[in-house]
Structures are given as C-alpha cells and as structure tokens.
Design brief:
Length: about 200
Amino acid sequence: MRLIDLLVIHCSATPSGRPLTRGLPGQPGFKNCVQIIDEWHSARGFHRAFQARRAQNPELSAIGYHFVIDLDGTIHSGRAVAEVGAHAQGHNANSIGICMIGGTERDGKYTTAQWRALAYVVRELTDTYAIQLKLPTRNGDTVSGGVCGHRDLSPDANGDGQVTAVEWLKTCPGFDVGAWLSTNLAPAAKNVLGGAV
C-alpha cells in the first residue's frame, strides 16, 4: 500500500450541467463519463498496468482519476485507491484524484447531487487515510497533508508560500477548495447549478 496524504479535486473541463455521455444508454456504442475520460486519457498517452487493470475496472485502460462524480451524484470508480493515479503531475504518488463532471468555466457550477457526493467521498477518504480537512502544507513545490484543487498545485512562482490566481496554470476545479473546506464543505452559491444547496 502506498502512503496517501493528499486529495486533489479536479473538473472534467466540460460545460457545467451538461452530461458527459455519448450515444443512448442501453444502446450499442453508449459511453458514460468514465469511459469517455478513459478515452481522453488514453489519447494523452496515459496507461494502467496490466495487474492494476485486472484488479479493478479492466475495461478502463488509461483513466488517471480514482473517482469521477457525475451530474446525478453517482460516484464512479476509476483506478483503485492503491494504484498510483495520473491526474496531478509531480503529486500522483501520494494522492487520490477526484473528478467532478463540468467546471469548464472559471467559476464552475455543479449540481447539488455532485456537491453532496463530493462531500461524502472527501469525508470518507479523509477518515480512512487520516487526512485533515484543510489545505495541504507547502514547502516549495512539495505539497502534502490535506485536500486541494488541481489549481492549488500550480508552482508558487513568487515564493510567498501561497498560490494565487495569477500563479494558476489552470482554473480546475473552478471553485475555491480552501473556502469550501472552511465552510464545513458547504459550496458557495455561485458554484451551485440553480443556486444554493
């Protein structure tokens, strides 16, 4: 088992509220959000080891995330938690990647069901791995011991110990994870499709 002390929240960078599917459910060729992300990651050159695929989700050859949260709050598994992810370069060895469907906008919006599912997954994982519900500590580009958004892993260009909006390499996941943590996992109304939860 690997040491896990970091949860990284991502978005699929698709329009908020728009399903990430292809075809019709139950029909040949239908793809759900996890299968589509797996295709994207395969096209980027990601791959999973044979033994890891054999142990969990053998049909997913490349997905980098451990969990994907769909619009209806369904929590899909990707890689096994014991498997090193491919979601945050330089931080995969000690982290678990969680992807929310949507969020392409600078202020991503997610459904109430997604927010509830995210809170559930984060609470379960922080309890299981004794990770504090706080932003991780940072020593240069070494980040450990907490929960953050993908954008929070951007380099600290000015060396002040904080990564601000001007330093973000991307806006993913489209919301301030630190603020979300400080409100006991209650999302800001601007990040909820249809308003407050």
